[in-house]
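Hey, does this match?
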Amino acid sequence: MSKAGDQVLAALKQPRMRVLWPLGMLLFGILFFYNVCTVYVRPYEMGVKQVILGGEKGIREKVYGPGLHWVTPGAERMHLFPTDLQVLEMADNAADVGEGADHRVVRAIKIQTSEGYTVSADVTVLYRIENPYQVITQIGPGRLYEDSAVIPRGEQVLRRTLGELDADDFYKGDRRDKAMAQAQKLLVTELEPKGIKVTHVLLRQYRYDTRYQGAIEQRKIQDQTVFKNQAEASAAQAEAEMNRIIAEGKAIVQVELARGDAEVAKLLSGAELYRRTQAAQGDLVVKLARAKGIELENAALRGAGSENMVGLKMADVLDGTQLIVVPTDGEGGVNPLDLNAALKRFDVKGL
């Protein structure tokens, strides 16, 4: 034996190495057992066990969730499937998908429209695996669910649903959305029995052939111009109708104002007429009362004692005159009660 071999044997015979050597072998055995006999299912995965050797070979229906699970070496195998949302991108330009994308990318869908135009469509299909047992028994292990189910069925359904559209329908959001909803419905119907749930089918971008693109854009510009002119004509018509309504409203206001002024003038005229009528009636009543008073006064003067009243009036006339003494008898006598003699004496003409 060489000198180096002797040194190794001597080292192993030391007490410390006699303890570490079994521990190392035990640790190696544990690691080997862990790698060969167990499978770790991560939190975003599900597992399906397949029995390779034994009397009950085949796929077990039980689905294993996250955790560490026993697998018999050489006799059993654990197939893992993702449970998080899966993305299938159908696009020709990798830049449209985004850098660092870890989902599946295939070529864009070529659509033959009902008019014979060719449209290249970028589509995103979102789905998840709900039942891995159905996936592995009906499609196969690994990622065969992409190559054998989601991709071919998705392309076939999209060509059928989008192919029913006209070239102009791609510009109409309601038509596009209806076609994509129909595509999702068909994919759900076909893939759900296989354990795959399609959640969304999104049309992200579409491109016409260059020979049709310019013609379509020009036609769309013409259509938009027609719509613009129609909208402007409708706006002008609406503005004219608005002006007519405003003019009618102003005319109605003026008529009502004139009618109100006429009613006010009529009321004022009636009030003035009433005032004058009442004033005239009042004056008439006053004058009639005065005339009646004069008539009664004259009647009283024609009755008994009227001479005394005449005397009293004459006394009032003589009020303020100077007192003189005149003879009351004889030729030069003065009788104050004889008015005619008094008037004759003073050369006053009779009334």
